[in-house]
Recover the amino acids of this structure.
């Protein structure tokens, strides 16, 4: 199973937001959209999910155009986690249970609740089931939102800055959970702007600037001082520590 993005262009308010976006992702891959704020990463995810319709090109799931599937059908294949989450007084279990919405006609059944509890267990939040979502910390909320995606039982996860506003421990916890799900056979397309996290967790990186994919490939191959300067406008050095590459910013262009 694969998603193919083919020559996608998006115009909003008469302004071109995405231009010539092309790539594929298959199950078992962790692909990072890496770029500065406002580069088009979120728009790419919203387009893949079918929220935005391309003015040129298309997004395909196994050869079928996603925009013709409808959001309800898309939600059975793709789980989408936006950057911002609405405040709610729902319990943690009920928020997670929302992941079953594409499959529930009227009321959730026993199996839906079981899936929600299992999803919370996957992210280590099963003891918080009866807590209000609004009472949780930022990292705890992100884990619950990931549990909602897992409860949806989709093959593809579209995750927009899942580590934003989190401390470093929470960032690593979240990305390790995503990595485990990818290794179990799912696919993740993750928007982020942290270069070192992209180096550590990605199978492939697509570097995005001004609505275009400027560089694409394995992280160790394409994350270089010259590509960082090109995309982020930052001068950086890349050093090797314990066999791993680490990006060290040294100045602004």
């Amino acid at each position: 199973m694969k998603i193919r993005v083919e020559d996608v262009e998006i115009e909003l308010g008469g302004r071109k937001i995405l231009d010539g976006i092309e790539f594929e992702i298959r199950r078992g891959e962790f692909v990072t959209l890496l770029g500065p704020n406002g580069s088009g990463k979120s728009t790419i995810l919203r387009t893949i999910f079918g929220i935005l319709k391309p003015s040129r090109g298309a997004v395909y799931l196994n050869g079928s155009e996603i925009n013709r599937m409808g959001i309800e059908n898309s939600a059975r294949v793709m789980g989408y986690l936006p950057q911002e989450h609405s405040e709610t007084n729902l319990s943690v279990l009920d928020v997670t249970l929302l992941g079953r919405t594409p499959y529930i006609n009227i009321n959730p059944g026993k199996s839906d609740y079981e899936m929600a509890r299992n999803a919370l267990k996957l992210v280590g939040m099963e003891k918080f089931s009866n807590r209000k979502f609004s009472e949780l910390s930022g990292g705890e909320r992100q884990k619950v939102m990931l549990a909602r995606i897992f409860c949806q039982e989709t093959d593809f996860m579209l995750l927009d800055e899942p580590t934003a506003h989190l401390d470093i421990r929470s960032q690593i916890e979240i990305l390790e959970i995503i990595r485990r799900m990818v290794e179990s056979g799912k696919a993740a397309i993750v928007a982020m702007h942290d270069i070192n996290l992209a180096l550590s967790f990605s199978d492939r990186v697509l570097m995005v600037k001004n609505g275009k994919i400027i560089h694409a490939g394995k992280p160790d191959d394409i994350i270089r001082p010259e590509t960082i300067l090109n995309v982020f406008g930052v001068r950086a050095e890349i050093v090797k520590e314990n066999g791993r590459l680490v990006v060290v910013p040294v100045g602004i262009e």
